[in-house]
Specification:
single chain, alpha/beta, Rossmann fold, 4 helices, 27% strand, globular, binds flavin mononucleotide
Length: 155
Amino acid sequence: MKIGLIIHSVTGNTLSVAKQLQKRLTENGHEAVLDEIKTEGKVEFGSKEAKFLNMPDLSGYDLLIFGSHTEAFQLEIAMKIYFEKIERIEGKAICFATHQFPFKWLGGTGTVKKMKACCEEKGLKVLGTSVINWSPESKRQANIDNAIKEIAGLI
Ligand SMILES: Cc1cc2nc3c(=O)[nH]c(=O)nc-3n(C[C@H](O)[C@H](O)[C@H](O)COP(=O)(O)O)c2cc1C
């Protein structure tokens, strides 16, 4: 299966998860392409616009996996604006998010719920979502491993 990992990451956490996920999917026999959404500078919370340095081409994939993170208990603003800008597209998607707190409901759950709604609004069928708690540090890698297992299990 050709899978597009479409990621927005400001400090690198979501990107590091995406790279590990890409490795697992490749080991599982898929062609996994990682494409990062980049903006000119950090898009501040509350912004209505964002200057995107690239808009990944979403065509040609059997599955899209979107990765982003939580800011102020919601989906980070650049990703929200990104979803508003993309064209309608049919197909399948999975969404995941990283967030700082040790409990999913402290931002992560709301973030993936919003990502799922954004995907569905554009015509994508969402197979599932996953949240990675970035703290405590002692559990971080186990949390990442669980999310990768969860996502790989949906494919
Ligand atoms: C301005 C700001 C607000 C944040 N708000 C939350 C929050 O409400 N809940 C949470 O769990 N993490 C919050 N975080 C932490 C990030 O979601 C977390 O560090 C994430 O892994 C960053 O992903 P990235 O490195 O891919 O950009 C916030 C971070 C920033 C910079």
